[in-house]
Backbone:
């Protein structure tokens, strides 16, 4: 693979938002091009504080946190990679905040470091990515032909994969014999240990097995995403609704927790359908937890403990001690 210029560019990868689902796909893409990447790592309280200070109040928490991740990479990378994710497959749209994400991050960072990315709009056409792939090839110093080829081989199939490309997700569920709690929510909420206040770890240490939308195949989530199955809707909303409709019919699922960030437009629709649906399942206790940058862990834990108390008797004392 020939290079356009000699300097080796290091690309900064902010570890928030859709990186939780797509991280490994983009890492593979850059590795195939021989480009070094540096990740911002796990969310910290400093990253949250920094991100909140950079964004307007109306922005949802995960976007603020991504801005904090991007800012933490200043001085460590030559450019920050933020894809413009319009849609990752036919018939689906991304949340409008993901469509405008590179612009939000560029404004937040006030040009301290260049923001680069790729436009992904697979609902319209793979050709929509052309211009942005050219610009990326200039930034990272690789031939456009190689960048386009890596995009078609790795990114296009990877983003719409049947199973989540993020290998650490299925590892969460190892002990098959335990009762199950289904955790609904966006991957960047439920798998971010700080934003989720370690919800999954707490449920596991309380004696439960945890299932998430990402334990279900993508095609199964889509087929069950009532009332939007087969219709155009937001990608993460389809994931949540499809998983909910599968979990509600599973006897081993003892209850469900829906973790949502304050001010999420997609959840304002999806959660409404979930809450209507759960009323038809009186034997499945349900807890909706809304968090923002001001949420405290003690209030969170109290609500979780009350939820666990609603579950069928079994090992309540053990559960209480663990939360
Ligand atoms: S889906 Fe919700 S949480 Fe995610 S970026 Fe959009 S508004 Fe924010």
Residues:
């Amino acid at each position: 693979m020939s290079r356009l210029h000699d300097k080796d560019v290091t690309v900064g990868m902010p570890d928030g938002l859709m990186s939780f689902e797509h991280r490994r796909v983009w890492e593979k893409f850059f590795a195939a091009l021989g480009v070094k990447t540096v990740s911002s790592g796990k969310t910290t309280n400093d990253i949250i504080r920094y991100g909140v200070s950079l964004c307007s109040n109306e922005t949802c928490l995960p976007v603020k946190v991504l801005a904090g991740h991007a800012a933490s990479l200043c001085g460590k990378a030559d450019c920050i990679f933020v894809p413009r994710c319009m849609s990752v497959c036919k018939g689906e749209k991304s949340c409008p905040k993901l469509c405008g994400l590179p612009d939000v991050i560029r404004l937040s960072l006030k040009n301290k470091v260049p923001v680069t990315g790729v436009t992904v709009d697979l609902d319209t056409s793979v050709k929509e990515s052309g211009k942005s792939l050219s610009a990326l090839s200039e930034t990272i110093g690789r031939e456009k032909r190689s960048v386009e080829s890596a995009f078609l081989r790795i990114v296009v199939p990877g983003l719409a994969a049947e199973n989540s490309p993020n290998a650490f997700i299925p590892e969460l569920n190892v002990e098959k014999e335990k009762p199950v709690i289904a955790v609904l929510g966006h991957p960047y909420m439920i798998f971010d240990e700080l934003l989720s206040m370690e919800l999954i770890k707490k449920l596991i240490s309380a004696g439960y097995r945890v299932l998430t939308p990402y334990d279900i195949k993508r095609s199964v989530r889509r087929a069950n995403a009532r009332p939007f199955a087969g219709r155009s809707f937001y990608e993460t909303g389809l994931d949540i609704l499809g998983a909910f409709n599968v979990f509600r019919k599973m006897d081993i699922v003892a209850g469900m927790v829906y973790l949502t960030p304050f001010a999420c437009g997609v959840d304002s629709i999806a959660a409404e359908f979930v809450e209507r649906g759960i009323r038809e399942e009186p034997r499945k206790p349900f807890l909706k937890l809304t968090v923002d940058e001001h949420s405290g862990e003690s209030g969170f834990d109290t609500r979780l403990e009350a939820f666990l108390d609603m579950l069928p008797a079994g090992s309540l004392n053990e559960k209480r001690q663990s939360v």
